[in-house]
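BUG-538 | component: ligand-complex export | severity: low

The export step for copper (II) ion jobs runs without errors, but we want the raw record kept on the ticket for reference. Input record follows.
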Amino acid sequence: MSGSRRRFLQQVSAAGLAWGARRGLAAQMQMAMPAVGPVVASDEKPRVMLHSLELTPFVDALPIPERLMPMGERPLRVAMREIREKVHRDVPATRMWSYGGSAMGPLIEGRSGRAMRVEWVNSLPHKHFLPVDYSLHGCGRELPEVRAVAHLHGARVPTKDDGYPEDWYAPGHSRVCHYPLEQESATLWYHDHAMGLNRLNIYAGLVGMMLLRDEREDSLGLPSGKYEIPLVMYDRNFSVDGQLYYPTSGIAGHPWVPEFDGDAILINGKIRPFVEVEPRLYRLRVLNGANSRFFALAMEKGLAVWQIGSDQGLLSAPVKVRSLNLAPAERADLLVDFSGAAGQNVHLKNGGLEVLQFRVSSGAGTKACSLLPGKFHKMFTPVVRTEEAGATVTRRITLDEALNGRGDSMLMVLNRKRWMEPVTEKPKLNATEIWEFVNLTEDTHPIHLHLVRFQVLDRRTFDVFAYRNAKGLRYLAEAMKPEPNEMGWKDTVQCPPGMITRIITKFEGYTGKYLYHCHILEHESNDMMRPFEVVDEG
Ligand code: C2O
Ligand code: CU
Ligand code: CU
C-alpha cells in the first residue's frame, strides 16, 4: 500500500469506519505472488526476482528523451516496437515495448492552437510477453493477442482521435491522429489505451510525454532547454536476468491482480540514475506513469521546491512544497533551486528511498543565475475558479468494489456498472457540471476524465456504512478545500476512501463518446471505467 493511501486510510480509520473484506482478499492474492525465490514469469520460465536495492545506485546517467517537434504538414511518425534496453549498468538488457527506439518515448513539443498530427504505427510483435488475462472484458482469445491504441492524456481531442479503448489495432497497422491542441500550456502524456491490455502495454513501456507551450508560459522566462528536465517515473519488477515480471493472481485462467507496487523505481527508464546539474534554477516536469503506485516525493537537504503547475497547466502562483504526493497519471511542474548546493550531491526521494541523484557542479564558470521563484509570483496569471452556481447538473458517482461472478476475485466499478453497460452520463456540450465521487472502497482512486480539464472543489468525510445500508448521506466532518497546489486545472483527481471528492468542469470542445476511469490501470481494466457521451446543446 502506498504512502498516500495509507495516510488517507489512517484518517478514515480515525473516523471509525468499517470496511469490507477486500483487503483480506487482496492480501491473499498478494501472497500468491512470491516476493523472492523462483517464480513463474510471464513466459513460463522459472526465474528469480531481482532486488533493486542490492544494485549500486547512481551509476547510470538519467536518459533525456529525444525532442520531437512537428515540421510542416507531415505528421510525426511514432512507431511502437519491441526493443531491448538496459535499466541499470549491472542488469542484462530488458525486453520492452516503446514508442520509438528507446525506453523513453520521444518528448513531443507542441504549441497551443497549432494542430498536430501523429501517425502511431503498431510495429509490435504478434504475441504478448506479459500475462494476458483473456477473461477480462474486451480481451478475449478471439481477438488479436497484441492490440494497441495511443491516447494523448490531457488533450482535448475529437473522439475519433482520442484513443477510445475499443479503437485498438493490431500489429502491422497504423493510425494518424489529429490533435487540435486548442488548450493552454500543460504537461500532457501519451500512453496505450487498448481495452483490457493497456495495464500490460504500459508496463511493457508504452509511455511518453508531450509538453504543450503557449505565449503566457513563454512570457515567464522559465528555465528551458537543458535546464528543463522531464522525469517520467514508474515502478517495475524484474527477474535477475533483467526481464520484466508482472505479478499474477495464481488463479488459473484469471491472472489479473488488483494492484501492486513494483520492486524497482525507474526514472526515464533507469533504476536510480544520476543527473549532472549546475547550481541554478531548474524546471522539472514530473509524471507518475506507474500502473498503481503512488509516489511521495521530496528533495533532500531542505532544497527549496516550488510547484508551478499541475496536470493541466500553471497554478496561480508558485507554491512551495515540502513533499509531493503523485497518484498514477498526475503531473507536477516544479522549480528547484540548486544554487545553494554547489559542489554537492542532492537526492530526490520517494518515501525514504533516494531515487534520483543530482550532482551539482561547483559552479566554476557557470554564472549562478538563480532567478528566485519569488520573482515569478507577480508574473503568474491567477487561475479563475469556476463558480459552483454555474453548474447545471450534479452527478453522484460511487466508487465500488465487489466480488466478481466467480467469487474468487474482486472487481472495481463506477456507479455499480460495468464498462459495457449503456452510457448513463450524457453531459450537454458547454454545460458546467459537478461530479461527486463517493468512495465506498478502502483505496484512494485517481479518477481521470477524458476531454475536459476540471477543478477540485473539495473533499468531505461521510458515513460509508450508513450510505451502503441505504441510510442516506451523512457527513462526518466539514468539507476540506484542496491544497494550494491542487487549486489549478487538473484532469486526474485523488479520491480518498470514505470521502466524497467533488470536481467541477465544463464539457467544452466536442460532442461524442469519451470515458472516465480510475487511473490505477489494474482497476481500470476490471472494470473501473465507464463511457460518457457529450451531446448537443439543443
Ligand atoms: Cu491516461 Cu484514459 O487515460
Ligand atoms: Cu486521458
Ligand atoms: Cu482505482
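Assignee comment: Attached the raw record above. Residues 316 and 382 are 4 Å apart (CA to CA).
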